[in-house]
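#structure-requests
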Amino acid sequence: MSVIAQADIAAAGGRPEPGGPSIAPVSVASARAAWLAAGHDVARFDAALAPPVAPKPIVDAPKPAAPVFSNKPTSNLSAAQMETAKAALIASGADPAAIDAALAAEGYIAPAQTGRTAEETAMDASAFRAAAPSEFNIDLRGRVPTVPLEKALATKPGQQREMNAAELVRFNADVRGALASMSLPASIGSSLIECALDDSRVYGALDDVGKAQYDKQQRYALGQQLGADRVEDAISNSKALLSIFADANPKLAADFHARGFWNSSRVVLQLNAQAERMFARADMAAKRGRTA
């Protein structure tokens, strides 16, 4: 087969005959010149004479290692979820030893023992865990506390002004520390202060008669929420919790008391709920033979 013929085959998408006669270099050069003179594409000529490129072997992708199956069961729940489930079962009266045995059969490995009960571990992992001061996010927009106006600027006794930036930073830090001292959860502690700031403004705008009436209304609201027989206990629990606040920051506690910070029923309800959570923690600690 001539070189030109082989090039024509390539131009049509074919290849020269395998095993065909070899062609001398001089003949190739002559044929190439003739191909160009005829106006054909020289690249197609060269491609026709190029030796066929062997296709790359197809290599199968490496197969993933076969999974190692075990007869040992495993749990799909996190440790926190398992501990929460344990606490719920124990609270319902189930035998803790039986629960541990059943969980072990399901492949659950308990976290390192810390001497704390399952109930305590579950509470620590819940939304009711005690927060650090930095975790409280208090929204002070529209709630900036006031302080007495400087005597040189006051035109009448008892005038107030809003805290300046430096005073507000100090106030925020002091409040966060006091909330942490009461072991309050982050969201609950922040909400507690926001409610107290709002309600204390209402209380502070009243005269003595109005304040006395306000206190009666709030006590009645507590009775509606808790039942009349629980009002005194709720107030007592709140005072016990606030004594921790006072120990942490006596000056701030006295200022808050004077402003009627803790007088509203919704604030007392939150304080009482936290006191009951703390009592529950103490009871949990007593079950394992030590104090919280």
